[in-house]
């Protein structure tokens, strides 16, 4: 399935699985460097860690928005002629 047919929860789950895979593949070796990037501070692993930390923080329900932020239709002012 492609993204237009996925719910937000399914997209979040796929991103979580991808972040975990990145962390598994970019785990520092004995020399402290990433085996893929060969850098001591791998930017891919750092991004994946930040994403997972954000998901953990928002899964508590504190920052999760279940509804859209768009406002509903404007209330009609009875004093307006139209």
What does this structure look like?
By secondary structure, the protein is mainly α. The chain has two helices and no strands. It has a domain at 3-57. Helices cover 41% and strands 0% of the residues. The radius of gyration is 21 Å and the shape is elongated.
- Which residue ranges are poorly predicted, with pLDDT under 50 across at least 5 consecutive positions? 63-69
Q: Give me the Rg, rounded.
A: 21 Å
The outline comes out as elongated
The biggest beta sheet reads:
none
N-C termini distance: 47 Å
Element pattern in H and E: HH
Mean pLDDT, nearest integer? 80
The amount of helix comes to 40-55%
Please count the beta strands (DSSP E, at least 2 residues each). Answer: 0
User: What's the tally of helices?
Assistant: 2
List keywords for this structure.
41% helix; elongated; single chain; mainly alpha; 82 residues
Describe how the helices and strands are arranged.
Layout: H1 8-25, H2 43-58
Helix pairs in contact: 1-2
Summary of the model, kept short:
By secondary structure, the chain is mainly alpha-helical.
């Amino acid at each position: 399935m492609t993204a237009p047919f996925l719910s937000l929860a399914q997209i979040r789950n796929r991103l979580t699985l991808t972040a975990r895979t990145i962390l598994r593949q970019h785990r520092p070796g004995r020399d402290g460097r990433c085996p893929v990037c060969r850098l001591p501070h791998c930017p891919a692993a750092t991004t994946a860690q930040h994403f997972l930390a954000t998901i953990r923080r928002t899964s508590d329900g504190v920052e999760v928005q279940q509804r859209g932020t768009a406002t509903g239709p404007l209330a009609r002012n009875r004093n307006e002629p139209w």
